[in-house]
Amino acid sequence: MRSFRARNYANDISVNAILRLSEQPVFKNLEFTLYGEGYLFKPLTTPLRKFSNVVLHERFVPNTEMPAIHRAHGIFLCLSRLDSQGVSMGEA
Prior knowledge:
This protein has about 90 residues and is of the alpha/beta class. The chain has four helices and three strands. It has a three-stranded parallel sheet with strand order 1-2-3.
């Protein structure tokens, strides 16, 4: 549930973390879901499209949907190159 409109959201680091995890045996036991919209979504997530345990949702998530998405997942990875995600992390 991240904007893919600017690099400060560090979505590239999240993608790289998933790619590095894919090299580990535990990867097959994990599931990843990425939500977001913006011009960086497709270029950044293209390397993840080959994995059946990575689900990509290219869309904006309204606040009303966020609690259910948080409940359905175990970890909220919210990296940032700037200190700009306090509210999102607190909501998770």
